[in-house]
Amino acid sequence: MYVTRRATFSASHRLYNAELSEEENFRLFDKCASPNGHGHNYVLEVTVAGEVGEETGYVLDLKELKKILAREILDKVDHKHLNHDVDFLRGVIPTAENIAMAFWNVLAPAIPRGRLHSIRLQETENNAVEYRGEQK
Amino acid sequence: MYVTRRATFSASHRLYNAELSEEENFRLFDKCASPNGHGHNYVLEVTVAGEVGEETGYVLDLKELKKILAREILDKVDHKHLNHDVDFLRGVIPTAENIAMAFWNVLAPAIPRGRLHSIRLQETENNAVEYRGEQK
Amino acid sequence: MYVTRRATFSASHRLYNAELSEEENFRLFDKCASPNGHGHNYVLEVTVAGEVGEETGYVLDLKELKKILAREILDKVDHKHLNHDVDFLRGVIPTAENIAMAFWNVLAPAIPRGRLHSIRLQETENNAVEYRGEQK
Amino acid sequence: MYVTRRATFSASHRLYNAELSEEENFRLFDKCASPNGHGHNYVLEVTVAGEVGEETGYVLDLKELKKILAREILDKVDHKHLNHDVDFLRGVIPTAENIAMAFWNVLAPAIPRGRLHSIRLQETENNAVEYRGEQK
Amino acid sequence: MYVTRRATFSASHRLYNAELSEEENFRLFDKCASPNGHGHNYVLEVTVAGEVGEETGYVLDLKELKKILAREILDKVDHKHLNHDVDFLRGVIPTAENIAMAFWNVLAPAIPRGRLHSIRLQETENNAVEYRGEQK
Amino acid sequence: MYVTRRATFSASHRLYNAELSEEENFRLFDKCASPNGHGHNYVLEVTVAGEVGEETGYVLDLKELKKILAREILDKVDHKHLNHDVDFLRGVIPTAENIAMAFWNVLAPAIPRGRLHSIRLQETENNAVEYRGEQK
Across residues D7-20, what is the average pLDDT? Predict the structure, then answer.
């Protein structure tokens, strides 16, 4: 059984690889490398897989998952600049892929029942990524 | 190939385990244990997996799946109270997880071609579950 | 300038006019009169009209409107039964129209800047009402 | 007859009134004053009112309105920082209200047939403003 | 009080003015003049304005409006070609504007309580029109 | 890691098997066999699976996938009749299942990094298919 909690946050970012020249950054990231940054309303969907408890009928109380997401993720990224303001993203190019992997590393040990199954991060209505813990 | 039919229904429920005290119920289910119940517009997505037929280009005619969903599920739960009015939910704590498993048991034998692959049930715009028949 | 705050709540209700017979109620309200009630995820949109303040660039800080909605409306109706649990709906047939008018009467005096312009209440993805204070 | 074209853009901003102290800014704008800014996927809906032409059946070809929006607005704000990168927002606190009024001033003279009726700007899934040219 | 019923239908059309040359049609309508036609999932929103009845709490039972829409509109346009299959669109260039006006003429006399207030027709997720009966 | 690009297109089609009688076609496809065709706003979601590149933080730049989709698919199907106007659908009954398989065959060799994982095609808000390359 898979249970999913959806949340949104608003943040800004700039796609920029500090080891490359300005020119190479614009070739790679185009308008996403715009110097003053830009932003998104990110939609985050966190899915936990597990057995349904007999006493509760829950895999995991989604109100509890809501609190974990608020404490571990949303309080740290909402209304922030992802390149500058977030401890666990320091030194990371904040593509949706890299953000999803960073969220996985923060959330996986914080899930109290079942196991983290996937992190889906939608950046715009047309672009999304999903990470299931395959890659280290 | 996976084909999915989406449907909605409006129902009320109360999360309450009759074997526990009132106090334990409120600790477990919080406002979801509110005595007079509350309700949702549930969004149900039923996915069938199978081969595409050469004559029809269909796995399963979704108009046929629509009729099966109406007859087996929607006519029984739409505009109903899930704790009191639904035969196949009698004695079940109507969490989204338990409802999805009950729907699976009703629908799996009713699919005429292909096999039932998943039941997704969205309770609110932020909470959803998906069941793929793993747990008995 | 019009500013709109959207919020959702989950509640149950039964459409039933106590002055009519059971039979007339079913003729009028059909499955909406189902005795144990049913429920919805209501989507509420509250619009305030006013001038934009020069110091703030706001008509009204929507974070403030969010708090007003939580205190005056959502805390009283979310996860509740609208026929039984809500003071300001006592004796009212809880159609979307009547709920919207009741919300108007609660909210109009609570708006600190500008004036309440409209209350839109969506009951299902296909049914909605909007009230602009015309009818007493 | 009213015709509406919808478009989206991703931008960052910071709510900050340069004439007030840091402390007053945080009291007024709270987390929206976060120093490195944050961002949104804005949804813009531009509505033009007019008569339907007999030859075309159009008020205004929406493909033409699409091009006007791209040239006058989207190319200037998409993937940009609204406080720093946009000529027509210089010196403006970039609240949704002020952005909508600035867009009105840019677009109103650029509409070739009919007249600009409203600009709706949605900042998050819960917050939106609509401007109809009332305030100067 | 305004009550709105939403419905969808799938149809094809071709934008083509028979009094103009092939060349002028492509200049005016571009890819919308593609000879074999193309299609849309139209979203129709019909709004009726009126007083709330004391006995029912309804302006108009939306289940009744649903039946009127099915009988007067949807049965005639769903899964049809709007240039060839619909009596009340014969000789009309089927732009969203013209379809909305034709729907108005069919529906206005069929509304049993209150009065037709607006017809909104969404052709794609970015294009919509709204008609309020102003133009004859 | 899975990355998904969403796109929409508007097309018409008719479900019709030329090897069957008119009568059998209507029995199989019902109103979908309507002689002049009908249409949809299709929503296409293309998912590519792969490793995240260290230099870019991307599996595949979604702006590049956007261009591939435009060139290989959207330019050929948008505002077209799927039975008549599309080379790679010639002789195919254009059900959502068959369209998704045809898109797979076009796209799989065109993905420059990672591998095509799934094609999801939504025909209406209630009907969708997903293909993952299983069937030849």
Answer: 97
Shortest distance, CA D40 to any CA of chain A (angstroms): 4
Q: Does the distance separating the beta carbons of E130 and D4 come in below 8 Å?
A: yes
Q: How far is CA D122 from the centre of its chain?
A: 9
| Residues of E that are catalytic | 32, 79, 123
The catalytic position among B24, B38, B79, B84 is: B79
Does the complex come out with an ipTM higher than 0.90? yes
Let me know: does D12 contact A15? Beta carbons within 8 Å.
no
Q: Which residues of chain D have a Cβ shorter than 8 Å from any chain A Cβ?
A: 8, 10-13, 31-32, 34, 36-41, 78-81, 84-85, 124-125
Q: Which of F2, F56, F62 sits opposite A28 (nearest CB)?
A: F56
The Cα of F29 is separated from the nearest Cα of chain A by a number of Å equal to 32
CA dist D42 and D105 (Å) reads 18
Cβ atoms D79, A33 nearer than 8 A:
no
Pick left, alpha or beta for residue B123 (phi over 0 → left; psi -120 to 50 → alpha; otherwise beta).
alpha
Catalytic residue of the set B38, B123, B125, B134: B123
Instruction: Return the pLDDT at B136.
Output: 55
D117 CB neighbours in chain E (<8 A) are none
Position C55 pLDDT exceeds 90 = yes
For residue C136, pLDDT beyond 60: no
What ranges do the domains of chain B cover?
2-13+39-131
Chains touching F (3+ CB pairs < 8 Å): A, B, E
Q: How far is F135 from chain B (nearest CA, A)?
A: 7
pLDDT bucket at A136, cuts 50 / 70 / 90: low
Amino acid A134: pLDDT = 81
Give me the CATH code for the D2-13+39-131 domain, please. 3.30.479.10
Among chain C residues, the shortest Cα distance to B29 is held by: C79
pLDDT in tens, E95-110: 999 999 999 999 999 9
Q: Please say if D24 is a catalytic residue.
A: no
How confident is residue F28, by pLDDT bands cut at 50, 70 and 90? very high
Distances (CA, A) of B67 to B72, B110, C125, D114, E25: 8, 11, 20, 47, 43
Q: Which residue of D has its CA nearest to C3?
A: D129
Q: Across the B/F interface, how many CB contacts are shorter than 8 Å?
A: 60
To the query of whether residue C123 is one of the catalytic residues in this protein, the response is yes
Sign of the torsion angle spanned by Cα atoms A17, A19, A22, A23: negative
- Mean pLDDT over the full length of chain A: 96
Residue A101: pLDDT band by 50, 70, 90 thresholds?
Answer: very high
Asked if F36 contacts F13 with a C-beta cutoff of 8 angstroms, the reply is no
| b/e D71-85 (16+ beta carbons within 10 angstroms → b) | eebbebbbbbbbbeb
Q: How confident is the model at residue E136 (pLDDT cuts 50, 70, 90)?
A: low
Please state, in angstroms and rounded to a whole number, the distance separating the CA atoms of residues C100 and C120.
7
